[in-house]
Records
---
Amino acid sequence: MPYINVDKNLPGIRSLMAFRPETAEPLSALAEILLRDDTGLSRTDRELIGTYVSYLNDCFYCHHSHGEIAVCYLNGDRDLVNAVRQNYKEAPISDKLKSLLQIAGKVQKSGKAVLQEDIDNAREHGATDRDIHDTVLIAAAFSLFNRYVDGLASVAPQDLSTYPLRAKQIVEYGYGSHIFSQPQPV
Amino acid sequence: MPYINVDKNLPGIRSLMAFRPETAEPLSALAEILLRDDTGLSRTDRELIGTYVSYLNDCFYCHHSHGEIAVCYLNGDRDLVNAVRQNYKEAPISDKLKSLLQIAGKVQKSGKAVLQEDIDNAREHGATDRDIHDTVLIAAAFSLFNRYVDGLASVAPQDLSTYPLRAKQIVEYGYGSHIFSQPQPV
């Protein structure tokens, strides 16, 4: 039961964005740039970083929503997304992405937890300044999204079969703020 | 020493925003709406919430920058801003603001830390849905800003005398993204 009076037909962050469209606009613009930019990190990498941080924050709505988007990009490989959630060090992903997930996991705790050795490790595996910047900002952005969604107790659908359709819409149309106010499933 | 190659003449988040102008735009638009909206919470209340969360996150640059902006709005009352930082429960502020700072302190830890009793307490002291929404989102936004600033080890000027001038500029001109790339002091 949400703490404020939002549209009961909208789940998670979408109900909050419909409640306050003025802040929905920059939030969705930020998601669009950070998660769908094709320079450097792939869209899959970006969604996996967001999923991992949301999983660490135990944000059910966010880690299932973004996990499903990653599943879409990975042509249905849900096992890989689960492997990243549970133990990315053993997941079948590149060493570069592992090094960036290490940084993202530090950011989830605190900005100050990121050490020079984490950065050096990422550079040794081919990460550029832009990759490191985007990783830190994606992890910081999910530190916002997760707190926003759970801090207002927005509704997270418990039926996991509702997430894939919504994910497909995001993959196709992006994070434009118009998306968040439409009464679509999930 | 920042972890990525940013303009050494720019401090804190301003150096990061100049590095990646595409993300600077929605971030500064978010700050502009959340911290300078005059509906419900005052600009002073909004800056005090941001300062408090930044102080809890030990983000030197953010809690001094936003603390000084609050000092400006309070006509120089730095003692009040310090009282909010250190023990808001005993600070000479309204019970309503205290109840919202209680929520913000929970959000700093985790969205899930906010309980129905925190919301009930805020409502008993006159907080509206909009006040509660904005408090949670301000606290969540500073969870992003603080991690962004410290996760990339951006430079925080240690000379506190440099912060008031910058604060005055923000009070006068706002958080427009053009502000962040100008080589001004602080």
---
Amino acid sequence: MSATALLAIDWGTSAARAYRVDADGAILAERSAPLGIQQVRDGDFGAALAALLGDWAALRAPRIACGMIGSRQGWVEAPYVDCPADLDALAGGLAHVPGRKLAIVPGVACRDGVGIPDVMRGEETQILGALGAGPRSALAVLPGTHSKWVRVGAGRIETFATFMTGELYAVLLAHSILGRMAGVPAGEGTPGDAFARGLLRGLEAGALAHDLFGARTLALAGGLAPADVPDWLSGLLIGREVRDARIWAAANGGEASRAWVIGNDALAARYARALGDAGIVADTAPAGAAARGLWAVARKAGLVASTGG
Amino acid sequence: MSATALLAIDWGTSAARAYRVDADGAILAERSAPLGIQQVRDGDFGAALAALLGDWAALRAPRIACGMIGSRQGWVEAPYVDCPADLDALAGGLAHVPGRKLAIVPGVACRDGVGIPDVMRGEETQILGALGAGPRSALAVLPGTHSKWVRVGAGRIETFATFMTGELYAVLLAHSILGRMAGVPAGEGTPGDAFARGLLRGLEAGALAHDLFGARTLALAGGLAPADVPDWLSGLLIGREVRDARIWAAANGGEASRAWVIGNDALAARYARALGDAGIVADTAPAGAAARGLWAVARKAGLVASTGG
């Protein structure tokens, strides 16, 4: 029934995910492969794209991608557009792989109060996709290795801030003294009491470089089982991020009593829990944010004809 | 002329340093070896001690050590004594290797405002040694992998706080995205302008998990040379530690307008610079703090006879 109007690809550092999207923006099917830009051999992105698409490669639909594929280390660099950035800005900044093989959405850049830049690639598309059918103004968080907190106003990305929470968690467990007595990293399951305890600590004022050491001293003193160190650390880091992001959000547009969580995995559930404990209402965005955002950019750019309205 | 009255050993995780000390506490000679407890094979600490001492092993002087040699992973565990801790408490908590081979100074433990423990091993001896001839009350910092900020009052360690600054610096440069575009880690030389810029950022209020990302975005945007990333990161982390420690110190005994820096290396010089930029007077402790502290504990314990006074 529905024909494929767009091939939309969320192409990141470690993985790539392709979607067949119809003319109304509905997702018809999706495929993924461990073909993030770090996994692509000899810069042969064409071969990687063919492998990802499989028989979809024969479809005549236009192709669009977001994420690290547009970085300096990707296929074709799509230079950052500055905040405030809306769909028009993303559509206007599309980079094109020669031969109409692929259009690539630019990342977005901003500067904080003291002039230090911040950047995102991929999240700009997710957030505009996630909020496309929702409020035109919102605070949103995209949990991950480098979490992004984003202030959206009137359908534009006004400003944002990156928190290296996920990477701190990973490198501290794998390479610091905190991991030496710890159990396996927190997994997909429901976090337990140790997560709640870490969260409580994180949501309070404190010095992060000091508070982190609590994961070791609590374990040394018998106040935390070694197997629970990862969950406590996860709680501390996510809690502190939420605390600090609320201060950031209040200084960047005011209202921070509710926030959208863009993501549908176990990590997003941890963030929703942290927001709740902080007294912030968590709205969970529906799945497929990147595909919907890519469709919205493609339509703005005239790659996909509007079916009406 | 002066006879050896004590063999004093600062025995840490990665290195060990031995001192010959006379009856007045003067250091006659010192030796070091890469025989920290992590380097000792098969738990044969006796062989490691013999290797470290060399011909000093024939001396009949008593032997005393501080540091990780007294931890659960060391030779004989010397359980932590609680704050407030003075020389009497350290002398009373000495653990002894059977056969009078070695007395080991206990570490010190405290709990912060929310009941999370903190611990030190080795620093308690350094600080009481460093301040032995100085003020009976002071704020002190011992820079390192795990920096310690210590409040000393009336010759006792009242309370302290650990900051994982050095370890964060090392693991982020070696294992995170921040190191991927960075030059070699900051070395022994005089830090340059990038250190000052990072310091300025660190001394301001901010969210550490966000501010760290500046090391990447500044480099991406051309605002920081890759070779300068380590110095900027060093400045950010040390500056934030000083900022947070001042808040901690103010909540734990008040006055924080001056601080002793216990250490004599390039790192201590960076801390002295950071204190100065923060408007805190930095007093630099004379070298040999551990040896003097070990001598003071040994004298308290009656291992070394007092020569008078």
